[in-house]
Amino acid sequence: MPASLAQSIANLEKRSEVLRKRLVKHPSAKKFYKHSKLIAHDLRQKSTRLLAGAGLIGTLLTTPIQPPSMNPQTEIAKREDVYTTKQLLLSKLQEVIPHQPTKLTDLGARKIENLVYEHTQVKAKAFLEGQSLNHHLGFMGFEQHLKRFPGDSLSQHDSLQEAGMAPGLGAFGYFSSDPSKLTTKDYMREKYYVAVQTLYLENWNQDFNFLKEWYKFRKVLVINPANGQAVVAVVGDAGPAEWTGKQFGGSPEVMESLNLHLGPRKGMVLMMFVDDPNNLIPLGPINY
Asked: What are 257-288's pLDDT values in tens digits?
């Protein structure tokens, strides 16, 4: 106990003893304190306890709090939290994919599919139901808006009108037969469409009817391996031609989602089919 606190208690005891002797000389006061059980002796004991408690609290308040030691594993986990899911996926993808137009091998495809699913929860497949694109990695170029229905015009498209409107229809025709029948599903399909080189598939001519129907609005995942931006889109057109040096085309909104809509409006992308038979994965940018 600190010396100053002990002295304070001693002074209080001495003063209470003097007061007690004075009070008990008066019969009425003696009777009152006896009845209330608030004699100076009780007060002295209670005061001592209160002062001791105050001293303990004061000691606790003035004692510096020592921070708990951090477990090394916890410290490592804290540092890892700094990295976002997108950055982790980007870092891992850049280690395994080539930066040139390529068709993946079965082994390479499985490795990339696992990475993509681990970080996006999207089941992306390089090979799906026996089908595969001629390239899984390739250059994507900026495309124009497509006509969604008869009479559609550029002014009716709500964003990136500077891209212009394609003079013809997409490879699969209109997205809706009439403007009054345009659904949100149709609207989103045109907004997030890609063009792929179906005309260069090895069996395109002999299996044309089957392949055209299989690829029509087929859902795909597109990732920009330079920045990790990703978007879910549908196959809405065919092309581009081989002489362009590009393997894919992207709608204005797709290119914007990948941050490829400025400058040369062209960049390397990874494209795979989305295995989504119940249509649960929405079109548009991936929210990591």
From this structure: 999 999 999 999 999 999 999 999 999 999 87
Residue 8 lies in domain: 3-62
- What does the alpha-carbon distance between residue 97 and residue 113 come to, in Å, rounded to a whole number? 12
pLDDT, mean of residues 121-133: 97
Residue 68 lies in a domain: no
Q: Are residues 49 and 166 in the same domain?
A: no
Q: Report phi then psi at 23, rounded to 5.
A: -65, -40
Residue 212: pLDDT above 70? yes
DSSP 8-state secondary structure symbol assigned to residue 149: S
3-state percent helix, strand, coil for the chain, nearest multiple of 5:
45, 15, 40
Q: What's the average model confidence in pLDDT over 197-205?
A: 95
- The domain tally of the chain equals 2
115 — phi, psi (to 5°)?
-60, -45
Cβ–Cβ < 8 Å for 248, 207: no
CA distance 190 to 254: 10
Q: Which of 113, 141, 142, 138 is nearest to 270 (CA)?
A: 138
Q: Which CATH number does the domain housing residue 197 bear?
A: 2.40.40.10
40 pLDDT above the threshold of 50? no
The pLDDT-based confidence of 254 (bands split at 50, 70, 90) is very high
Residues 9, 152 within the same domain: no
Distance CA 19, CA 14 (A): 9
